[in-house]
Amino acid sequence: MSLEIRGLGLSFRQHNGRRLEPLSGVNLTLDAGEVVGIVGSSGAGKSLVAAAIMGLLPRNAEATGSVQIDGAPITKGDVALAPQGIDALDPMAPVGRQLTRFARLAGLSADAGRRRIENIMQQVQLPAPVLTLYPHMLSGGMAKRVLLATALIGRARILIADEPTLGVDPATADQIMNCLGGLAGPERAVLVISHDLPRLLGIAARLTVLKDGRMVEVCPSEHFRGIGERLVHPFTQALWQAQPVAVSA
Amino acid sequence: MTGWLGPLLVERAIRLCWLAPLAAVGLFILVSNAPVDPIEAYVGARTALIGPEQREAIAAAWGLDQPATTRFVLWVRNVASGDFGDSILYNAPVVTVIMDRFPASLLLVSLAWLLSFVIGTGLGIVAAMTPGSRVDRAIRAYAVVLTSSPGFWVAIILISIFAVGLKMLPSCCALPPGTTTAEATFWAQGRHLILPVVALSVTGIAPLVLHTRARMIGFLESPPAQHLTAHGASQRAIAFGAGLRHALGPALTVHLAGAGELFGGSILAETVFAWPGLGQATVRAATGGDAPLLMGIALATLLFVFVGNMLADIAARLVDPRLRWDKSR
């Protein structure tokens, strides 16, 4: 099983008739068992890659290129996304009810859904009573893990996590990243979009570096070491050298 | 879960304790300064036959020879002991008059409330499913026409079409002429309800349509809905699943809070359809200078509106957990 993104580009039609191209020429390959990361500064188009794969583009957007799994277009349930914003949780429904919705979308019976939710809750390390809480009662870290849980319920072959550690304390961030690292398997590949370079390097085999909507570098994680002498693009080197922990290491 | 309900009820009870007396003072000032002379209204056409002595006797019997402040103190003292006085026009205790007529009004108002809620939110959801489409535009145009149509005018149009023209439905009253409640069949009573209920429901529909539509469109474009869409949920499934609470919750609150408006509308509808409810009694009491009955009805209406608003607050909290406050937590 492998996800193939070829020449992915996006173009937004603006009010003044001009076109904005926030993304162009993105290629990415993701095989079962792999964890791959996308890094880049804010506004580089990282989340747009996720949106394009999920078909969540605004109406004025036009996508070019192809996104395929084993040579066939993506179908319902193939890809699951844990979105960046915790506002993706329904403020009027308790966590349990929301997870049940995703279980139903995955075609699980009520019973199977309940067991699956129990399982997933352990996997993302949330205690069972969280199921009765409403989103506004959750801490940021809990909400992030609930979002991850919504994406894990169906048996999607590709899991995308968009900034899974944003706004979360270091210990919880470690937990979330390790959890993501453990999710890749013979039937599943994981794509992690993150600013959190050190933690991402801990789980990802390869990184794709985006700058202003273009890929500037694709390299194995080992290239991020020392003062970045094995990194090719100056932007990637700057990104690496901006990491206080990494440089001292 | 319901830790917020107790404090809310206590707070509202305290509010009623100062609101009701305040309203009573305001009402009394209005009623005692009304341009209707109760004695003149009572005497009516026999005005030439009645001399000043008789007028004074009537005034003395009703206490109208006393200054307004004295009358108010007397009234408050009586009300405190549960006596709202006697209606001049109906020649019966105010409480009895109200209790006799309230059920008929309540039936009318609650059926109209229910009908406008079902139609309003239903059309709102349908319009939200395809915003900008022909269906959506037709529904919005319908809502605009409804808002701009006064209830009493709609009532008259309904009568002229269904009662006069098609002769399908009765044009007045709660029962066929010459029958009592015991004699009339369920269907006969139901037939008399249709036109007044439809006429009364008209005013409430438009705001609900627009409100429900806006809320549903807002939710369908929101991150939670997108998250569900991304995982294979259809728009219909989202609208009738997670979306209902987002769209119907606020609509329920708005509609409960608007129950008072509906009660006001029932005065017009009851007049047009000669419906034997509280609205009709209100008009008679106002034009006939029946101060005790008017005061009683006004206070009953205050209570009705107050309960409606309180139910709206409770409904809002039941629907949206973020509005609940619980001091114990």
From TrEMBL, chain A:
The keyword Transcription does not apply. GO terms for molecular function: ABC-type nickel transporter activity; ATP binding; ATP hydrolysis activity. It catalyses: Ni(2+)(out) + ATP + H2O = Ni(2+)(in) + ADP + phosphate + H(+). Residues 5-237 form the ABC transporter domain. It is a peripheral membrane protein. GO terms for cellular component: plasma membrane. Its EC number is 7.2.2.11. InterPro entries: AAA+_ATPase, ABC_Ni/Peptide_Import, ABC_transporter-like_ATP-bd, ABC_transporter-like_CS, P-loop_NTPase. Keywords: ATP-binding, Cell membrane, Ion transport, Membrane, Nucleotide-binding, Translocase, Transport. Its main location: membrane. Belongs to the ABC transporter superfamily. The complex is composed of two ATP-binding proteins (NikD and NikE), two transmembrane proteins (NikB and NikC) and a solute-binding protein (NikA). This is Nickel import system ATP-binding protein NikD.
UniProtKB/TrEMBL annotation, chain B:
Residues 102-312 form the ABC transmembrane type-1 domain. Its main location: membrane. Keywords: Cell membrane, Membrane, Transmembrane, Transmembrane helix, Transport. Gene3D superfamilies: MetI-like. The chain crosses the membrane at residues 12-31, 106-129, 141-166, 193-210, 295-319. One of its GO terms (cellular component) is plasma membrane. It comes from the Bacteria. GO terms for biological process: transmembrane transport. It is a multi-pass membrane protein. InterPro entries: MetI-like, MetI-like_sf. It is found in: Cell membrane. Belongs to the binding-protein-dependent transport system permease family. This is ABC transporter permease. It comes from Pontibaca salina.
